[in-house]
Model the fold of this input.
Amino acid sequence: MLSKQVTKIVQNLEKKKFREKYNLFKIEGTKLVGELLQSHLKIRYIIAFSQWIKSNGPHLSDISILEASPQEMHAISNFQSLPEVIALAEIPVYHYSQEKVSTTLALALNGIQDPGNLGTILRVADWFGIRHILCDRDCANVYNPKCIQASMGAIFRVHPYYLELSQAIQKLKSYDYPIFGTFLDGENIYTTTLSTRGLIIMGNEGKGISPELVPLTNIRLTIPGFATTEKATESLNVGVATGIILSEFKRRIY
Amino acid sequence: MLSKQVTKIVQNLEKKKFREKYNLFKIEGTKLVGELLQSHLKIRYIIAFSQWIKSNGPHLSDISILEASPQEMHAISNFQSLPEVIALAEIPVYHYSQEKVSTTLALALNGIQDPGNLGTILRVADWFGIRHILCDRDCANVYNPKCIQASMGAIFRVHPYYLELSQAIQKLKSYDYPIFGTFLDGENIYTTTLSTRGLIIMGNEGKGISPELVPLTNIRLTIPGFATTEKATESLNVGVATGIILSEFKRRIY
Done:
């Protein structure tokens, strides 16, 4: 049985304020919790149906396991059909090192608002082997349950850092680190020389890259449209754009 | 003022059954309605705040315009912050012609469940100049309000057809039309010969391409992952995958 206190804590984890207070975030569902168990993250609590506990509990030491009834699960789940298990994990701390980042291809997220888009971006970053994700404080929070869900487990592998982007970029530039920005009127990405290291800035869904970051970019990229009629979609979804751009950087090795 | 009957009809348009009954679908917000007004679609009703009507009403003939109060708008809107305008447009009819499709690069959507993913796919299709979208009956409905919203107006330009995919593909094959399928274990898309015409099948979010369609594909494609660790994201979001694949087909002209 779940105490009222535990129920309240889990419900509060929807909000960033409480995630930071408790230093915990919530992971729902058999598949994602399975990936969590294989990650380096520290799990504090598992709340599950008795069946899940019977199959998985014996392998789990050091974790408090609480059994929940369907009604109790309903009170703490965001899912339409109830998950068998919910885990609460500690928010990991990744040490930001500009030296380390400057040897890799990394992403900078500038005011990505929608947690679903953010999760999709983490998922595609993980697919293309991007580890370091620099986020400014206008970005949605990566431990938002909608982001966790959309990330499909990528959140357990990529390293997000929240920092002052303009400062971080200025420091990275001293390493001769190329800064790529995505614009509607940049150079054709298909014909531009790309590199295996560098920072790719993805801008806000509606407003694009913020004015203070624009002058910090060395290379302005664009994904050209191929519409045959005058009227066409004005832009791509930021998750899709990130996918196309990372694909284009990575494919050049072939 | 909105009558109870109009309010009820608009609310019912959330459901496919009623969209088909009334042959109408709902478009919310100044930006999307603006795109709708520039499209070929027939608008039956506009429901708006007085201010929107003052600025736009005089240019609109043949459309019934109804003024709504904030409270009335709240009852029929899906938005968190109220839209200034909601339009009800007739569901357009596109005549499916296998001859026409067989000269183009087209998409086949096989059981895409999430209306947001579906809308994202339409948006990316529009960006890359793909007009013909073949959907099977397991796909979400393109006139679902969440799909309309995610499509960002692409729904007014692409031509979706709901049909028996396996039959349609079999007929298309008689035009020597290449059928591309996306799989986790296909050929590397970056090194495969692609073509300027052909059908690209995108499968269901969880299950991929359905067993009955698998034998109909000529070319099995995959987007290779670049993860540096063993554990990594198992797949890409279907909207992102569609974006990367269409980008790859279209970039070859450069």
